[in-house]
Amino acid sequence: MKIRLERDVMAEAVAWAARSLPSRPTVPILAGLLVRAEGNGVTMSGSDNETTAQISLPAQVDEPGQALVSGKLLADIARSLPDKPVDITADPTKMELVCGSVRFTLQGLPVEEYPALPEMPAATGTIAADVFAKAVSQVVVAAGRDELLPVFTGVRVEIEGETLSLLATDRYRMALKEITWSPAATDLEATALVPAKVLNETARSMTSGEHVTINLSSGATGDGLVGFEGDGAHGARRMTTRLLDGEFPKVRHLMDIKATRSVRVRTDELVAAVRRVALVAERNTPLRMVIGDDSIALSAATGDQAQASEAIEAVVTNHVDGDPTITAAGFNPHYLSDALGALDTPYVHFSFTAPGKPCLVVGLNELDGEVEHDYKHVIMLMRLPS
After folding, report:
1. H/E segment holding residue 77
2. Domain locations in the chain?
3. How far apart are CA 229 and CA 299, in angstroms?
4. For 28-52, how does the pLDDT look when each residue is reduced to its tens digit (9 = 90+)?
5. Torsion on CA atoms 261, 265, 267, 270, rounded to nearest 10
6. The whole model's pTM is what?
7. Are 343 and 135 in contact (CB under 8 A)?
8. Which one of 3.40.1160.10, 3.40.630.30, 3.10.150.10, 2.40.50.140 gives the CATH number of domain 256-380?
9. Fewest beta carbons less than 10 Å away: which of 53, 197, 212, 377?
10. Class of the 123-252 domain?
């Protein structure tokens, strides 16, 4: 193999392909990055046997071929090279990189031992890259982090015609985002449970292109592969990952909250207040929100060592079809901050039912306007000490 690439193009491509490489591979061969040159382009691939990242880019190909070398090392080298064209030559035993007066020689890994990469499933539909990235970022904040409960570490993708829904929960909070997209078929229905971490990294890394194509290999069963395709600044990017097994809990009904009391407040003011008051919140203790007639008061404490409180103007509504007995609510401060950070509206609307019951958080574009139903965030309230 003999190719030439621009330094910046190579560095970006190697970094993209190396993103799926395991930090501690169980099989040494998975530490390798596969470089394949043919025609007028180069494809770089990395995999951990669950997730595979590939990028294809144009290149000057003098001799086609393929090589497998340490992906992490190649990425470090690519970032350190001077801003000059990079000439790469490789045979089955080694790869040589020459960039100006800089020369690196890397030991080759046996290409024949590298596992076969999965085929990209058929296209299911497309969505604007920026819309997809924003939607994913709003939902993944509610996904679980406990690998012992893998079903909660995923985002449930639900497709029903032109509506694409993303749903995540860690049992203590839930986030739902519904967006319009362009399906391959108008009567399409499918579900999949995608690892949240992979989904988030993929969505963020494909924003340089206009659209993202989503490819599902399964229907209602929820197993198989999901693939994502998008255009980057210098090449086409593809990511595939295995779907998570297990049945996602039925939590959609928890989003249908009939409020007995609601609160509306400026998002930026509440974000700043939560950040300040939470500084003294003791671990595993709630941040208290006391609801007044036209304001809310936040407070937290670390025993007798430190206390904080802050009041904010708010619009408080008591609904006639319920008993507005809730005068105070206890929030996990981190969950509340995550929910507020996921909103992109100037105002936020809280729907309360009763102490200790779930609270619905949605966005508002105007203080007296309609709530934004395309994004819903539910937080399980904490029990307040008497």
Report:
1. helix 71-80
2. 2-113, 123-252, 256-380
3. 46
4. 999 999 999 999 999 999 999 899 9
5. -90
6. 0.90
7. no
8. 3.10.150.10
9. 197
10. alpha beta
